[in-house]
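Proteins fold reproducibly. Consider a sample protein:
=====
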Amino acid sequence: MISWQGRYKLTFQEAWKKRLEVTHGKNHQGFYAATVEGELLNADGDPHSVDRTLAMLDRALKNWQTRTTQLQTTTIKPLVQRDPDFQWQYPSDGLVLQVGIRDLPRKVDHRPDNWRRNAHNLDYVWITREEMLQIVPKMVQQGDTFPLPSVLTRRLARFHLLDYVHGETPPWPVEVAKRADLQLRVIQVSSEKVQFSLSGRAPLRETNVEGTKKERGFDATLYGKLIFDRRKQRFTRFDVVAIGTRWGSTGHSGRRNDDAPAPMGIAFTLAGNEPRDRTPPHISQSRNGLREYFAN
């Protein structure tokens, strides 16, 4: 209802009448500021300009003074019913990683000198406590080498070794993600902690992307350092980088004019404790997304 007012310039009353229309297929992306009843205060469809976004919010605050809804203090009640396909629970006793992704410098860069050259994006990895503890065998010795549990290798590859620098993109097919191979090597062991190095490759390539007969890929090499605290039974370090060449595009990846092979980097590190760090993985916005994410 809010976006009907912003993008399609309907009045609040007109948008209210269309609020139940959900099969129109129109694109309603953008930044919106509104009252809790859905009265639009201001909007902007360009999320790439900080100045424009701040100006939009400033105008929204001014429009707040002339609003026609939310004139009294409103109490937001807890949701009585949640869609089971979009329910999630933050793995507070498990392992949560922040993921940063960006393009790497190119020897020759023909792109326009705009935001796309410096674009970056974020996501989060969720690993349950049971899965986390499977990473570290109870009996390990310095020099031991073993694979990262296959369920975690596939999760990292399928849902996070993706090109979403400029937008969003669907996960790799299961059979593509299975090509990733990540190995752990024990560097040092004590009664207090275990230190690992991680290395591996993820030669990810898909043909007939979204039924277009086109190809996308990311041929990545991974390297990292991990430290597991045996007393706290938690990781105190989990730094991994994935560097390689990516190519191709998908419908919403923003690579329409930039799908030739080029370098890209992805970094994984322990997430913080800010509210934003409780953001679920991007796949959670898809119906059954987290169910698929945690599938073995």
